[in-house]
Structures are given as C-alpha cells and as structure tokens.
Amino acid sequence: MKLAKKAAARATAAYVQGDFQGAFQAAEWAADFGVPEAQYLLAQMFQAGHGVDKSEATAIAWFRLAVDQGYAPAQNGLGAAYELGAGVSQDFVEAVRLYGLAASQGDAAAQSNLGQMYQFGRGVEIDLHKAISLYRLATALGVTRAFLQLGDLYLDGNGVPQDYVEAARLFRVAADRGEAHAQMTLGWMYKRGHGVAVDLREAARLYALAAAQNNVYAQNALGVAYADGLGVVQDDSEAVRFYRLAASQGDPLAQINLGDMYRTGRAVAKDEAEAVRLYTLAAAQANALAQVKLAWAHHNGLGTPTNMDEAVRWYRAASINGNVVAQANLAFLHELGRGAQQDFSEAARLYRLAGEQGDARAQALLGLMYQQGRGVPLDMAEAVKWLRKSADQGFADGQSALGYAYAHGLGVDQDRAAAAYWYKKAADQGDKEAKAKLRLLGEEN
Question: Taking Cα atoms as reference points, which of 301, 234, 298, 290 lies closest to residue 258?
Fold first, then answer.
C-alpha cells in the first residue's frame, strides 16, 4: 500500500507538470490498490479528457470509488457533477449532501460550493447566514472563489450590511489571483469610486486583465473606456475592437455599443443596416435599451424601411421592460393614433409610467391630458401637479403649460406674476408660443 500511495503522489506531480500519460499510468496502478487520491485523479482526467478520451461516465465511476472511502475532494467533485448534471442526472439535493460531507471534513472548495447552494436555494432553503458562514470558512482557507462570492454579498448588501470598502478588499484578493469577474467588478468600483478612490487608469487596467481572459463584460467596459478616453488614450478603433470581441459572444451591451459605432460611423464605415442588425440581436435578449433603439430605427426608417407595426412592437417590449423613453414614445403614438390604435386611456397610463420615472415630457403631456380630460377624468389640480413636476425639471413645454394654468386659474389661483414667471422660463429656451403669451401679458422677454 505504501508503494501505491507513492505512485499516487507521483501521478499527481506528473499531472500538475502536464505529463498526462505518466500521470495516468501511475494513477491507474495506484487506483487498482484502492488509493482514493489516485481514484480521484483518474476521475478528474476522464472528466477533462486529459491524457485519456473524455468520459463522464468513467469519471463518475472513479469519483464514486473515492467517495466510498470518504475522500473529501471526491465528495466535492461528485457533488459538482450532480449540481451541473455532468455524467449524472442533475440533483441539487444530492449535490448538497455530498458538498456537506466534504465541507464537514474541512474541504474549502466544498465549503464555497455549499455556500452557493444556500445562497441561491438549490437543494436547500435559502439561508444567507449559512452561506456567509461557509464563505468565511472558505476564505480563511484561501479559496479564491469564496472571496468573490463574499465580495458580491457585501457589494449588494445581501445578507450583510452593504459595505463597499469590504467588498473592494475581498475583490482585490480574488483579482490579484487572476479571477476575471473580480477584476471586472473591482474595475467598475474604481470607475465609480465605490469603496475606493476614483481611479480611471486602475479601472482600465483591471478591465484589460479580465478582458484578456475573455470576460465579455470587461471587454465591453474596456471598449467604453477607449471610446470615451477614460483611463486610456481615446481610441475609437480600440473601442470597436473590444466591442466586437464581446458582441461576437452575445453580450447585448456590446452589441448596442458596436451598433452605435456603425450608426454614427465611428472608426467603421457608417452602416445603419448593420447597426439595426446588432440592435436586433441585443433586443432579442430582452435588453430594453436595444429594443427602444430598434423601435426608433423602424419608426424613422434608419437602416431599415419605416415600419410602424415593428416600431410599436419594440416600443411595447421596451416599455414592459421599464424603459422610460419607450413608455413616453408609445404613449405619444397611442395619443395621436399613429401606428397604434388611438387610445387616450392607454396613452395616459404610459405617460404616468414614464412620468413616475421622472420623464419631463411625459409629465407635461399627462398634465395636459388631465387638463383636457382625455383618457383620465378632468382634474385641474392633478394637471398642475404633473405640469409642475415637468416645469421644475426645466422642460419648456411644461413651463409654458404651467404658465397658462396660472394665467387662467386652472387648478391654481389666477396669478399673473406666476404666469409671467413660467412663460419667461419657457421663452428663454426659445419657446415661441411662450414668448407670444408674454407679450399678451404685457411682459417683455
């Protein structure tokens, strides 16, 4: 047995050095003597196809032999197979059981894996306290992934008080060990100044490290950095290169950004049809920004023939996803009956959704609908409420309409000075109608 254990150790050393043939020969001999370390190594080799033909079924068989001897790494490995459904039917409950066996023996990777099961409620009830405890155990043993997992919780304030400084500390450990998601997230924190001082160069450096590992979020973020000259020398060609890398892997934000480059002809030949193609790819992933851009293209015939049915379809999709521009635009189409059935009630509903998100144009138009009793009950006080929200944001149409309300005592006491004040605000922005009303009041702009 001593010889077999020595053979298992030689096999592991050979595997680490990339000598898969030597590793297999030594591991197979030791495994036949029941050495669990060798059985586990064979399982890994068959699972990855290192030095042998890849065979998940054979990998599972070797995992089970090692698990039967209580070998913790094999328990964790077999647990992962059940979690992913790799070579066995996916079974979160069995994965939790196996992770638990390994974690109870102090296996750090299993502690991290089990923590994730508790965090997301896979095979167990969600228990963030348990997840955090397990992540802490795993970080104490140096598991890189656990630093990332715990950092995410501190970043979001999920199960712990939100703490950007602690999140940054944890991400930095993982990032320094080459974890791409940690590099990307820490870069974002440096860009935003969350838990660290704003440092655009450091953000770009971290994005580049993650992008080199094919992290699509980092590739897109680095593209943005080059497009805007944030922490790097502004370079549209580099922006396009990184957008293209991420877009080719299906990242919707990169598809939108690359589409914008084609729409405007930045570092590529202007091609509105290609922009529409890219927006379509992103819109199909339920990205609201892409949906509203695609709707606008169909609405205005940019890169595609004008098609109001398609415009309304995509405005509606983006509206359902909460996009304020889509809500306001779709409301306008319903109000006027352009490309969509005229429906004042639906227009008012959509204006309200957009107005509640702070869209000044929607607030003004909803105010006018209350003032006129279209799609909503006639309500001058409610009209003034929405017009004031719009006017306070500096929207000229809202200011002019609020001035009109004061001039005629609609929902407010008639007040010539207040009317003149709001008309002048609008007139100063070039509103011709407000200028004319100022003259009628005898005021000069």
Answer: 290
As a whole number of angstroms, the distance between CA 226 and CA 249 comes to 20
For residue 6, give the nearest of 62, 24, 29, 70 by alpha carbon.
29
Look up tokens 């000259």; give the residue: 229
Convert 66-93 to b/e letters by CB count within 10 Å (16 or more is b): bbeeebbbbbbbbbbbbbeeebbeebbe
Instruction: Give the model confidence (pLDDT) of 378-414 as tens digits.
Output: 999 999 999 999 999 999 999 999 999 999 999 999 9
Cβ proximity of 210 and 243 under 8 Å: no
Average pLDDT of the chain? 96
pTM of the model: 0.86
Residue reference for tokens 């202007």? 270
Cα of 349 vs its chain's centroid, Å: 28
Q: Which tokens is 2 given?
A: 């001593």
Sequence-distant (6+) residues with CB within 8 A of 220 are: 242, 243, 246, 251, 253, 254, 257
Sign of the four-CA dihedral 174, 180, 183, 184: negative
Query: What tokens does 122 get?
Result: 């896979």
Angle (CA) 111 115 118, round 5°: 140
Helices (H), 357-415: 360-372, 380-392, 396-408
Question: Residue 310's Cα: distance from chain center in Å?
Answer: 26
Confidence (pLDDT) at 443: 64
Confidence check: pLDDT of 223 > 90: yes
Note the pLDDT tens digit of each residue in 48-59.
Answer: 999 999 999 999
Contact 238, 268 (CB under 8 A): no
Helices 344-356 and 360-372: crossing angle in degrees, nearest 10, is: 140
The one-letter amino acid at 332 = F
Residue 38 has pLDDT above 60, yes or no: yes
